[in-house]
Each structure stands twice: as structure tokens, then as C-alpha cells.
Amino acid sequence: METFFLTLYVLIWPVLVAGVLFGIARSFLREWATARREGRRLI
Amino acid sequence: MPPVLGDGPALMSGWLMIGLLVLFFGGTFAMSVVIGKKKENADGYMTAGNKVGFGISAASMTATWIWASSMYASATSGYNYGISGPVHYGLWGALMILFIYPFGRRIRKVAPRAHTLAEVMYVRHGRSSQLMLAGSNVLGSLISLTSNLIAGGALVSLLSPFTFQQGTLVMAAGVLLYTLWSGFRASVMTDFAQVLAMLGAVVVIIPVVFFAAGGPDMFSQGAANLTPQQGDFFSSDAFMNQGAPYIAAVLAYAIGNQTIAQRLFAVREDLIKPTFITATIGYGATVIGIGMLGVMALYLGMDPLNGDTNNLIPQMAGTYLGPVLLGLFVVMIVGALASTADSDLSALSSIVMADIYGQSKGKGKADPRKMLLIGRITMVLATGSALFFATGQFDILDLLVFVGALWGCLVFPVIASFYWKKVTNAAFTVGTLAALAAFLPVRFELVPMGGATGYLVDVVSIVGIGVVIGLMAFGFFGGRVAKIAGTAAAVVAAPFAFGTLHEYTVLSGSLVAYAVSTLVCFLMSVRSSREFDFDTIAERTGNFDTPEAIQAAAVSTK
């Protein structure tokens, strides 16, 4: 049981990182598309 | 047996390392060219116009806060303190971002178009307060820049045939190349690509190393390599030596770091909360995750190369990753150091542009063209200085402790200055200097800590615990809850802390700094008749690069 929880403890972090990465990338692409549509610079 | 660092020829050929660095810095330079303008705007160079969206802001906050040293330090914490070590490093580092956001909203409300916190302090108090904050910002960014160049040089020399000096030089030149022209705009834009590379690498590398190193079996086979404290998730060793000093530093690093303030002034005001929450999770998960490499090294019974725990991460990567993933690992570390180094360069240039040149001339009188030139010259000089420190024998960690303490001394005076009309310039200055004077003998044990002195330090430190918890609660819940939480924390901690806290000098030094600055600043302000009008800040801080300023500069040139 301890081995299971330690494995979960090690591998949960990349899963969380993947979630954050997805959120940031999706928002960036939406902002980029909006800026392009409105003919302005992204930054 | 796979090849191990220091065990023979370099793991990566010189050409492969060159190829990766050219790809990385070439790509970021191309991005900066795409967003570059022939005539950059001085305010854009410092804050990108105060309306950056969520995607770029969250990426930039995350990338900036994750520096190469934090990855190495988290793994070191895992190796030294066991399974809870990375949490005691990464969690509190992540909370630095979270706990600053309620204050950040207040700061943006009071100073919507400012560029630096020190610039606001100039309007709020005057020159001495501004210079203390700006000076600590400059030192902090310079140390961070140096540390990142050192990390880059060490990585290159560990994995390839190139020397440490060659590594630091390439990193410095690469970062300067893409940041110099567009400043902060280039920094945040390239942060997005760097965060993709860094976080993407973390997602792949941690599970690959885990299974290559034996997977779940390593926990049963290597359990004997851990002491009882290292195997305990609630280790008091890990908490007292790693976690607690970081809790005390949570607000200090957030207040003292201009890279955070710069992003705070850049992001669209309504996006401050989601940006900071996302960066908190992104930073925490990434750094704790990388720290797991140190925990794995501990279970595997690995000895750090040359006894230096900073070599653990490259050692684990070199031992368990194939050539392709080793390349990805290099990109991850270079991404971490470059994203923080470019932010430090932008922060340094902003401080010199806004706090030294801008404030000396006054709003409406500073020449925006000259301001940009000064910002770019600052970047070149800062890079040269960091290279000098990186290749010298300076112990930057000692300097970092000193700057961290200075930031701790500034926390209450800075925060109170944004909420309390009565805080005066004298209270700010004397409070900060008194706290620094009290910190130095405690942290560096300049006086014997036995007997009455030790008990006095304990009592002041207990007050410091109340101040830290009170300030954290104040940001989210206001003054009433802050007073209750602060008092409760001090009362609960007192029986455990009294008689022992002075033995933990890193922790008690920070707590003394908080307590003394708060007490002196409060006592000097509470009876003052000053009633500062916060609307003054918005009126006196703002854009430097306006048509009127350009016209005035043109007239004065003629």
C-alpha cells in the first residue's frame, strides 16, 4: 500500500503540470486568434 | 550499466550541445524579432502597456518564478530531507505567488499605470524609501541573474566537452540577444515558448526516469537508504530546516522581487487573480515534481557527483535518459534559466529607467528615447556584471540570504504604505534599518545566543510569527481576521518556540526582521498626524512615453 501511495505521490506532479500546460496553451491560442481577428498585436 | 556523469567522456557531443543552444536561442530571438517594433515604446519596454492577456501572463509568471536553481534546490531538498523535502521547498515557493495577489490587486488599484513598486514608494514617501526598495530589487535581480548563468555554465560543463566559462558566456549572450531590443515585451512573449518547453519536458521526464530507475520497486528495495526522518512525510527536520524559513520568506520574496511586480503591472487588471492562481499551481507542481528526482536518488542510494547535490538532477538525467530525452532535459534547464534571466534583465532595466532616470527628471520631463537607451545600456552592464560574479569566487548564496533579509525588513512597511494613511517616510526608513540591524547579529550569530539573549530572540521571533501569519491573513480577509490569526499563531507557537527558536538562525533571523520592522514602523506611525491621499499615487505615476513627453524632449534637444 505504501508503495502505491509513493508511486502516486511521484507521478501526480507531471499530471498537474500537464493540466496547467493545457490551460495556458489554450488561453494563449484563443488570445492569439482574437488579436489576429481584430488586427492588433498580441502584445 | 548506463554512462554516468564524471565517469568518462562527456554524455553529449559538443556539436549536439551547440545545436540545442542554437535552436533554443535562435527560436527565442526569432520570436523577439516578430514582436519587435522599429521604434519601441518606453512604457511597453517596462510593462507592455498594462493589458497583457491571461495566457501570456500566466505563462510568464510561471516561467519567471521557475528558475534553474529552484529545480536544483528542490531535488537537493528531496535528497536531504526525504519524501517531504520537495514539498517543503516547492509548496512555500508557490504560495509566494498566491499570497501576493490580494496585495497585488490593491497595488494595481492605487497605482494602475506604475512600472515598479519603488516608483510608487517615491510618490508615497520620498527618496529614501524608494531607494531602499529599488536597491534591494537591483541586488536581488543581479543575484538571480548570476545564479542562472552559473546554473547554465554548470550544465554545459557537466554534459558536454565545453567549459563552465564558455557555458556562462553563451547563456548570457543568448538571453541578452533576444531581450535587448524589446525588453519586457520580448521577455513575456518568449516566456510562453519557454514554459511550453519546460512544462512539456517535466511531463515526460519525471515518469520516464521513474520507470527507468525501477518504478515502484525502488521504494521497497531502497527503503533502507532513508533515515526515519527522511521516510516521514511529516518530518520535523524538513519543516524546521526547509519549510519554516520558507514560510517566513513567502511575503518577503514576493514583495522584494521586481520581476513579480513588473508582471503585476503588466497583466490586465481583471486577470490578476486567475493569472496568479495558475502560476501558483504551475510553479508548485513543476518544482515539486522535479524535486522527486532527488527523492528517487535517495531511494536509489546515489551519491552526488563531487559531493555537490546540485549535480543530482543532471546525474539522474544522464543516468536514466536516452540521447533524445537528454536533449529535452537540456532544453528544460535552459528554458528555466533563460526565462528568469530575461525577466531579471527587464526588471533591472525598468528600475534604472523609472526609478533612477524617470524620477530624477519627473513625469512629463523624461525623454522616452533616452529612457529606452538607458534601459538597453543597463541590460548590457547587468549581463557583464553577472558574468563577472559568475566566473569569480563570490559566494552568492550568502548575498542571497542578506537580500532576502532586507526584503523581510521591507514587507510590513511596504504593505502598510498601501493601506494605512498614517505611515510616514521616517517610519518606513527607520523601521527597515532597525530590522536589518536586528537581523544581522541573529542570523550570523554575531552575539552569543545563550541565556537572556536567546530568550529575547525567541520572544521577538514569536512576535514575528504573529506578524507573518497576520499579514498573510490580512491580504485575503482584512484587518480583523488578521489580528485574530496573528495573535492566535503567536500564542499557539509560543510554548514550542520559547527556548528553542534561536537555535534555528535562518528562521529566527527572518522572524526578527519582520517583528522589528513592524513594531518600529507601527509605533512611529500610529501617533502621526499624516493623512496620505492615495489618489496622489495614480496622478503621479503613469506613462513616460506620451506625445507630450516626446514633443518636450524634442524642444529641449533643439
From TrEMBL, chain A:
Keyword Transmembrane applies: yes
Record keywords: Membrane, Transmembrane, Transmembrane helix
Transmembrane segments: 6-29
Name of the protein described by the UniProt record: Uncharacterized protein
Protein source organism: Zhihengliuella salsuginis
Automatic annotation (TrEMBL), chain B:
Pfam families the record matches: SSF (PF00474)
UniProt keyword annotation of Aminoacyl-tRNA synthetase present: no
Catalyzed reactions: L-proline(in) + Na(+)(in) = L-proline(out) + Na(+)(out)
Record localization: Cell membrane
Membrane topology label: Multi-pass membrane protein
Membrane spanning stretches: 12-36, 48-67, 87-104, 131-156, 162-181, 193-213, 233-255, 276-300, 320-341, 371-390, 396-419, 426-444, 456-477, 484-501, 507-526
Gene3D superfamilies, A to Z: Sodium/glucose cotransporter
Keywords: Cell membrane, Ion transport, Membrane, Sodium, Sodium transport, Symport, Transmembrane, Transmembrane helix, Transport
InterPro entries registered for this protein in UniProt: Na/Glc_symporter_sf, Na/solute_symporter, Sodium:Solute_Symporter
Cross-referenced PROSITE patterns: NA_SOLUT_SYMP_3
PANTHER family, per database record: SODIUM/PROLINE SYMPORTER-RELATED, SODIUM_PROLINE SYMPORTER
Family: Belongs to the sodium:solute symporter (SSF) (TC 2.A.21) family.
Name of the protein in its database record: Sodium:proline symporter
